[in-house]
């Protein structure tokens, strides 16, 4: 089959963008942060304190914004690692970095990105802005799609305990984010939205623990003892759940490990009969409706 000029052009462009993707190495990275608030400071702290030898960071350039946070980074990691952009000109941060974390508020995104110029040869951007979409980021930055990423994480990345969600998939970017506490690459933004749901079930988890506490206190257990014991016991349970979590069968195995006819098995049966486990499915549907803007999650 003869290739048309258009398909030839497309293959040349994809060859160029592919070779670009390979330029991003995982050694001596220079990270720039647009915004230096809660999440930017947490990511910079997690990466700057990483002992991962596969991924090395030579420098971090941060906005002077949220001065107490940027100053804290400088005092903890020193001028060899951290530079605060004193001029307030975000272009300076771009000019000295190759990986740019976009950490401003949703309302600030358009203004911040439209005032700077990205370099196709050098820049990869990773947006933390919850409302940003890949097409919007590509259009605002004029970067090729292979250089534009969206990431979701919690501030616990500062202590390497936050598992990041990344879209689109990229082995190189995933490697860069691994020191933050793990990273899952998502096939699409749609899949990423569904991956966000367990983090939205943090509140209910605490509510279960509070329910346990109230019940124990009502039944005569001293509150301090109950609280300490619940916190420590659930930690042990969570550690077992995490141990082999790379295997999707692991949770089923843990359920099957419960003593046949024992009290844990009874509790599963009772809660199933009472509809408690099914109600989680329904709550997850409602959370998804709200995350995708298809409803207010109430009905
Ligand atoms: N907090 C979280 O747990 C979390 C988790 C995941 C994602 N996110 C996302 O991350 C983004 C930031 O959230 P955050 O909680 O870190 O908010 P934040 O603490 O308010 O941080 C926003 C930062 O942007 C700075 N900024 C504002 N305008 C700027 C400009 N023109 N140039 C450079 N910097 C500018 C602010 O500086 P000033 O303070 O000086 O105005 C501040 O440092 C949001 O879009 C949010 O959706 C947050
Ligand atoms: C709880 O489970 C036990 C053992 O399976 C069963 O005997 C009991 O009827 C169940 N109670 C409820 C309320 O489901």
Explain what you see:
With 299 residues, this protein is an alpha/beta fold. Strand 7, helix 7 (171-177) and strand 8 (183-185) form a beta-alpha-beta unit. The protein is globular. The longest helix has 21 residues, at 223-243. Helix 2 packs parallel to helix 3 and helix 10 (202-218) packs antiparallel against helix 11. Helices cover 51% and strands 12% of the residues. The protein has an eight-stranded mixed β-sheet with strand order 3-2-1-4-5-6-7-8, sandwiched between helices. The chain starts with a helix and ends in an 8-residue tail after the last helix. Bound molecules: NADP nicotinamide-adenine-dinucleotide phosphate (NAP) and 2-acetamido-2-deoxy-beta-D-glucopyranose. NADP nicotinamide-adenine-dinucleotide phosphate binds next to helix 2. Keywords: NADP, Signal. GO terms for molecular function: pyrroline-5-carboxylate reductase activity. This is Pyrroline-5-carboxylate reductase. Residues 31-129 form the Pyrroline-5-carboxylate reductase catalytic N-terminal domain.
């Amino acid at each position: 089959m003869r290739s048309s000029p258009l398909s030839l052009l497309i293959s040349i462009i994809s060859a160029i963008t592919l070779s670009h993707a390979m330029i991003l190495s995982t050694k001596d990275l220079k990270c720039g942060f647009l915004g230096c608030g809660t999440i930017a400071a947490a990511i910079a702290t997690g990466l700057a304190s990483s002992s991962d030898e596969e991924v090395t960071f030579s420098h971090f350039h941060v906005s002077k914004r949220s001065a107490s946070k940027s100053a804290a980074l400088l005092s903890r990691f020193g001028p060899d690692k951290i530079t605060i952009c004193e001029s307030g000109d975000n272009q300076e941060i771009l000019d000295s970095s190759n990986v740019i974390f976009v950490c401003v508020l949703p309302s600030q995104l358009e203004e911040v990105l439209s005032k700077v110029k990205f370099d196709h040869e050098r820049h990869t951007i990773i947006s933390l802005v919850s409302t940003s979409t890949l097409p919007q980021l590509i259009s605002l930055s004029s970067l090729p799609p292979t250089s534009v990423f969206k990431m979701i994480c919690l501030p616990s990345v500062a202590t390497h305990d936050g598992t990041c969600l990344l879209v689109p998939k990229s082995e190189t970017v995933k490697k860069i984010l691994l020191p933050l506490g793990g990273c899952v690459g998502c096939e699409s933004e749609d899949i990423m939205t569904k991956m966000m749901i367990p983090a939205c079930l943090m509140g209910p988890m605490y509510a279960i623990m509070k329910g346990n506490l109230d019940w124990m206190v009502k039944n005569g257990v001293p509150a301090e003892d109950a609280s300490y014991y619940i916190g420590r016991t659930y930690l042990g349970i969570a550690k077992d759940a995490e141990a082999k979590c790379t295997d999707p069968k692991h949770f089923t195995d843990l359920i099957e490990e419960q003593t046949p006819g024992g009290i844990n098995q009874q509790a599963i049966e009772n809660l199933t009969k009472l509809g408690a486990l099914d109600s989680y499915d329904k709550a997850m549907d409602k959370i998804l409706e709200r995350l995708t803007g298809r409803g207010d999650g109430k009905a």
